[in-house]
């Protein structure tokens, strides 16, 4: 990357620090505890900084950082060999899923509360190939094109997986709501 008189560190910080909160939310939503999420984000920034000077062109830094974080998450879970818990999801995710994919119904009312335990439970059961595009879209706010780039899949596959993920959440939340009414 060509310099403008700024130090490498200053350019790196200017380009990457605006994405810190989103990366942390994504990491935390997958690992479920603050210390691991902070470690993963720190490792992401360290790897990004090491590669920064060698970047040939300026692209979307959020997609680039998300890709590094996803690789770090994969390594983390490969080492721990356990399914990551989804916890403390932001209100943005539940609101955006409801707004973008559903007509008003019981599942939308369930999703309106921040950190909904039922939503967390549903996302914990969702296959990884469906949950990652959903989180990248609704927590990291990436475009379909950026998600495709980060995950290394065609944009049509991103669209399909997002649709299937939303359907999965809607069906499970509706089913859980029906089950809880039958128990009461």
What does this structure look like?
With 184 residues, the protein is an all-alpha fold. It has two domains: 8-80, RNA polymerase sigma factor, region 2, helix turn helix motif (Rna Polymerase Sigma Factor, Chain: A, Orthogonal Bundle); 91-183, Arc Repressor Mutant, subunit A. The chain is built from ten helices and no strands. The chain is elongated, with a radius of gyration of 18 Å.
Helix and strand arrangement:
Elements: H1 8-16, H2 20-31, H3 34-52, H4 61-80, H5 91-101, H6 106-111, H7 117-125, H8 128-138, H9 144-151, H10 155-183
Helix pairs in contact: 2-3, 2-4, 3-4, 4-9, 7-10, 8-10, 9-10
What is the gist of this entry?
The chain is an all-alpha fold and 184 residues long.
CATH superfamily of the largest domain: Winged helix-like DNA-binding domain superfamily/Winged helix DNA-binding domain
Query: How many domains make up the 3D coordinates?
Result: 2
CATH topology of the largest domain: Arc Repressor Mutant, subunit A
- Put simply, the count of helices is 10
State the shape: elongated
Q: Which key terms come to mind for this protein?
A:
0% strand, Arc Repressor Mutant, subunit A, 10 helices, Rna Polymerase Sigma Factor, Chain: A, single chain
């Amino acid at each position: 990357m060509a310099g403008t008189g700024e130090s490498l560190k200053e350019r790196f910080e200017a380009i990457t620090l605006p994405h810190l909160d989103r990366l942390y939310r994504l990491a935390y939503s997958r690992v479920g505890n603050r210390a691991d999420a902070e470690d993963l984000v720190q490792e992401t920034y360290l790897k990004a900084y090491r590669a920064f000077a060698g970047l040939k062109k300026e692209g979307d830094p959020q997609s680039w950082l998300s890709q590094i974080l996803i690789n770090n998450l994969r390594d983390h879970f490969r080492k721990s060999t356990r399914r990551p818990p989804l916890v403390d999801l932001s209100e943005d995710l539940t609101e955006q899923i409801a707004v973008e994919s559903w007509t008003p119904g019981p599942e939308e009312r369930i999703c309106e509360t921040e950190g909904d335990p039922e939503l967390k439970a549903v996302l914990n059961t969702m296959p990884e190939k469906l949950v990652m595009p959903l989180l990248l879209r609704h927590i990291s706010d990436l475009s379909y094109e950026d998600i495709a780039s980060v995950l290394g899949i065609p944009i049509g596959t991103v669209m399909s997986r997002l649709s299937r993920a939303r359907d999965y959440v809607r069906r499970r939340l509706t089913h859980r709501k029906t089950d809880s009414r039958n128990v009461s």
